[in-house]
Amino acid sequence: MRSPSDVDRQSGPVRVPDPTVGFWVAKAASTAFGEAASDFSIHVMPPVAAVLLGFVLFLIALGWQLTRRRYTPVVYWFTVAMVGVFGTMAADVVHVVLGLPYAVTTVGYAAALAAVFLLWWRTERTLDVHEVRTTRRELFYWAAVVATFALGTAAGDLAAIGLHLGYVPSILLFGVLILVPALGYRFLRWNGILAFWTAYVLTRPLGASVADWLGKPVTEGGVGVGSGWIALVFAIAMVVVVAVTARARRVLARESAVG
């Protein structure tokens, strides 16, 4: 039997956002930003320095997020953006430095994500983002998020480069795949937690494929806009979406309080 203090800790404020439409739009923008920002950074500075800088910014963002103890839009999405950058770098470093094929890194990160989910479930008996109310659950949540970004990066590269599909066919492939959990949840009564995490994984290769297609040179199958410009565009998109959804959330909260 749990003590009153245990109950209080379990019933604190939720520390991560509800998966609304705005959430998914911001998440997709963050994946594209992370891919483009990672590519840009390793071209304007030594790769080792870029990875170290990405790791430091990720730790700073995560530490800031963990001290909030509630969902704070600016802090949360800054952390997601830094996870996007560092997660991309982690996946790329394993492939480039260690020379592991994309198929191997994809399977490896899938296994890592499965291990996080298993440990999370065995410890907390829930993977529901609506129940992320304690520091321990939030740590599991962010471990899963990092693993999904690395897995998505590897899977996107596997499709576009390893399987020689190219960026546009990869966008279409992952665009279709992400409809599966959405439609399954909407019409077939799929488990909401399973549908959420499946979609969460698939937004990464979809967003990364879009960023690569727009940013990569024409000689590599891209449009040739440049990764720096693409990172800037999607960073602005993230800021706008987060600002709009945060404002709508405040208005709804005020109306609920008045009502």
TrEMBL record:
Keywords from the UniProt entry: Membrane, Transmembrane, Transmembrane helix
Source species, domain of life: Bacteria
Output the Pfam families linked to this UniProt entry.
DUF347
Question: So which residues are the signal peptide here?
Answer: none
* Presence of the UniProt keyword Transcription regulation in the record: no
List, alphabetically, the InterPro entries matched: DUF347 (IPR007136)
This protein's record includes keyword RNA-binding: no
Transmembrane feature ranges: 40-62, 74-94, 100-120, 140-161, 167-187, 194-214, 226-246
The name this protein goes by in its record: Membrane protein
Q: Which organism is it from?
A: Microbacterium panaciterrae
